[in-house]
Amino acid sequence: MIEFVQETGSTNSDLLARLAGGEHLHEGQWLVADRQIAGRGRQGRDWFDGSGNFMGSTVVHCAPSDPPAATLALLAGLALYETCLPLCPDPSLLKLKWPNDLLLGRAKLAGILLEAQGASVVVGIGVNLAAAPELPDRATTALSRIGPVPARDHFAERLSTQFATELGRWRTYGLETVLRRWMGAALPLGTPLSVHDADKKSQTGQFAGLAEDGSLLLRLEDDTIRVIHAGDVMLA
Ligand SMILES: O=C(O)CCCC[C@@H]1SC[C@@H]2NC(=O)N[C@@H]21
């Protein structure tokens, strides 16, 4: 079920507030906004609310038997990738970048924000369907730059269906299958990356795949492999 609203602060904040207020949110329920006046991205950044873009959130209630909650970002990335694929004249341009981004070429097309409340995780997704912001520190793009602007409501239906499919696979087949499929949609191995951790320290290296738990593997200059559990990753 998708609930569409014209304007809100942030669809993630709304679902977190509903959970905090004791409301039971069903998995498969989505909140999608035309405008977000306080949309949030990762690392405390703002999220651009371009008219015609997709901005929506859903909830996953994690069970002890589920794979680690953080890997919902990889599952959401796959759902995004599969939904955007038919909209790209050149699908080879579409690539997942760890942990939460979908790129078109070298520019960011979509992002994912996970926010937990107890065992429930709100998964927020923003996709530049119609418009992309000009940002000083990273390249961004929109699907409208490579084809007709996708209809937001139809996109929302397709994404929610694909997300439900990926969630079922995550639970049924486990993380290994998700990781294998994610790697099939990811930037090529050896892609130069720079990683900024929570203390804003940065290190550069090459993309060397994913660890068993979904962490990033970064090959450093001396050929050692560093396991990155969290951070902001940019193309170097
Ligand atoms: O790449 C990122 O930094 C994550 C962006 C997540 C944006 C979406 S838009 C819908 C939901 N509501 C928010 O406030 N943020 C997420």
Automatic annotation (TrEMBL):
It holds the Pfam family BPL_C. InterPro entries: aa-tRNA-synth_II/BPL/LPL, Biotin_CoA_COase_ligase, BPL_C, BPL_LPL_catalytic. Residues 1-171 form the BPL/LPL catalytic domain. It is an enzyme of class 6 (ligase). GO terms for cellular component: cytoplasm. SUPFAM superfamilies: Class II aaRS and biotin synthetases. It catalyses: biotin + L-lysyl-[protein] + ATP = N(6)-biotinyl-L-lysyl-[protein] + AMP + diphosphate + H(+). It comes from the Bacteria. CDD domains: BPL (cd16442). Its EC number is 6.3.4.15. Keywords: Biotin, Ligase. GO terms for molecular function: biotin--[biotin carboxyl-carrier protein] ligase activity. PANTHER family: BIOTIN PROTEIN LIGASE, BIOTIN--PROTEIN LIGASE. This is biotin--[biotin carboxyl-carrier protein] ligase. It comes from Pontixanthobacter gangjinensis.
